[in-house]
């Protein structure tokens, strides 16, 4: 068995908008994620609709203080008030690192202020200090689906080039503040997901938009420039820092050996990896020309943009991996994979599925790691991987989540294989290490954590924390550096 590197960063991952709560405390402003509602009376298949298609009316209602709807991401799991308790539990598991995000709206509530909000900065000082007290390395995303709502409603989101300056000011502010506390940074979470949910990714409401593809890729271009400038600033302010991009990597495989399926897979994968291609290589790849032509996209760029991208590529590639997806050029008579939120792919008959229809493919993670390392030859970091499931508390108070242990065990085994293959991987943070509000469905009952939080989909509960069976299992995995699974 191939051993993990001795300094391997084992840990867990969350995002500010899914855990913190305290949306109206400490001077925080509303983010784009604070608009998402949860309504249990709707059919399950409707719960992800707003994730993909947010409307102007929904955004307007969410800003009405008299709205009677429930907005789960404003409450999270109340990490804002429980962070010391939660970090102590992470430390008990032996975490080497904790990946989370800084809520932009805690630092610049509207995004366009001249001066940062000191109360927000102070909160993260306390949080990072608590992590470092236990020797846990913070791994921080600058933007994780939580850009200020004001920048979406008043500026039109990332297609507006002004957002580059707002973002770089935010990034520079936190680099200077936490230069002695945070070494590892990620610029934009799952930056390639703008293809599927432009509202939460770049602040663009698709409804009645004259050219949504133009908006998506124009917004992405501005994020590329912002990411490069943030990377430049980070290296200047924190000389030993490492800055990474972060993509959602849903391994794509041809449904059949039909050449049309193979070609469709190549095209689909390029559309996804285009984002990391630009950030890691520092330029737009050759295939971009045809891709933009077919999408009717004509980018507006400025003199110096190409030089900025080339001079300041990212140091490492981080990614989320939950599933693979089969691709067909002729999907009309094939069964869709219910849970493939990213590609809407075809169901693979060789794979089992989770309760939410996400196809489980551990071996696909080994393939993904090899593909990414072969492509970029830069260090990799698995920023998200996990199983969402409904957990039941037994009569004796335990939570026997063997299904989660089995899922993670199979994936970690494949990570070992990839390391044996020669992949340079320096960290693994399983997703939702403590139960959080789901990004896609806004549920609490879709649980990923090693730590159970007593809270239901409507926000009711004590919010008390409870260890699951997987808690001690992961603790032992970390203690043995992956030798005992």
Automatic annotation (TrEMBL):
InterPro entries, per database record: GH_1_N_CS, Glyco_hydro_1
E.C. numbers: 3.2.1.86
Keywords annotated in UniProt: Glycosidase, Hydrolase
Gene Ontology MF terms in the entry: 6-phospho-beta-glucosidase activity
Name of the top EC class for this enzyme: hydrolase
Family assignment from sequence similarity: Belongs to the glycosyl hydrolase 1 family.
Protein name, per record: 6-phospho-beta-glucosidase
């Amino acid at each position: 068995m191939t051993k993990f590197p001795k300094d391997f960063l084992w840990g867990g991952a969350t995002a500010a908008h899914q855990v913190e709560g305290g949306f109206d405390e400490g001077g925080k402003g509303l983010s784009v994620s604070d608009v998402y509602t949860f309504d249990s009376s709707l059919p399950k298949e409707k719960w992800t609709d707003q994730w993909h298609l947010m409307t102007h009316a929904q955004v307007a209602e969410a800003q009405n203080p008299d709205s009677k709807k429930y907005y789960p991401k404003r409450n999270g799991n109340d990490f804002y008030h429980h962070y010391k308790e939660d970090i102590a539990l992470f430390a008990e598991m032996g975490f080497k690192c904790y990946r989370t995000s800084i809520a932009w709206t805690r630092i610049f509530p509207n995004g366009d202020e001249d001066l940062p909000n000191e109360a927000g900065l102070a909160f993260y000082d306390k949080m990072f200090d608590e992590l470092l007290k236990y020797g846990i390395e913070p791994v921080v995303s600058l933007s994780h689906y939580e850009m200020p709502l004001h920048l979406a409603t008043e500026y039109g989101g990332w297609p507006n080039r002004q957002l580059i300056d707002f973002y770089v000011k935010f990034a520079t502010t936190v680099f200077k503040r936490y230069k002695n506390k945070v070494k590892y940074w990620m610029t934009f979470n799952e930056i390639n997901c703008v293809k599927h949910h432009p509202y939460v990714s770049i602040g663009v409401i698709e409804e009645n938009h004259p050219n949504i593809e133009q908006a998506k890729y124009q917004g992405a271009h501005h994020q590329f420039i912002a990411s490069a400038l943030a990377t430049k600033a980070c290296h200047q302010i924190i000389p030993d820092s490492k800055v990474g991009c972060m993509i959602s990597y849903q391994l794509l495989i041809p449904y059949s050996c039909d050449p049309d399926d193979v070609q469709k897979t190549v095209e689909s994968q390029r559309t996804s990896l285009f984002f990391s291609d630009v950030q890691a290589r520092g330029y737009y790849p050759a295939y971009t020309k045809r891709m933009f032509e077919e999408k009717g996209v004509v980018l507006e760029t400025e003199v110096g943009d190409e030089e900025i991208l080339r001079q300041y590529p990212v140091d490492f590639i981080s990614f989320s991996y939950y599933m693979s997806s089969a691709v067909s050029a002729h999907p009309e008579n094939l069964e869709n994979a219910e849970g493939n939120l990213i590609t809407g792919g075809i169901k693979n008959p060789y794979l089992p599925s989770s309760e939410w229809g996400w196809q489980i493919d551990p071996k696909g993670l080994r393939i993904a790691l090899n593909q990414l390392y072969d492509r970029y030859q830069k260090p990799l970091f698995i920023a998200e991987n996990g199983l969402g499931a409904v957990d039941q508390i037994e009569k004796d108070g335990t939570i026997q989540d063997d299904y989660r242990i089995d899922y993670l065990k199979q994936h970690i085994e494949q990570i070992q294989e990839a390391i044996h293959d020669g992949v340079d991987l320096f960290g693994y943070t399983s997703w939702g290490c403590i139960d959080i509000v789901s990004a896609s469905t806004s549920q609490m009952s879709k649980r990923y954590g090693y730590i159970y939080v007593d809270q239901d989909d409507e926000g009711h509960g004590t919010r008390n924390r409870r260890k699951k069976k997987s808690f001690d299992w992961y603790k032992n995995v970390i203690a043995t550096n992956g030798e005992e699974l």
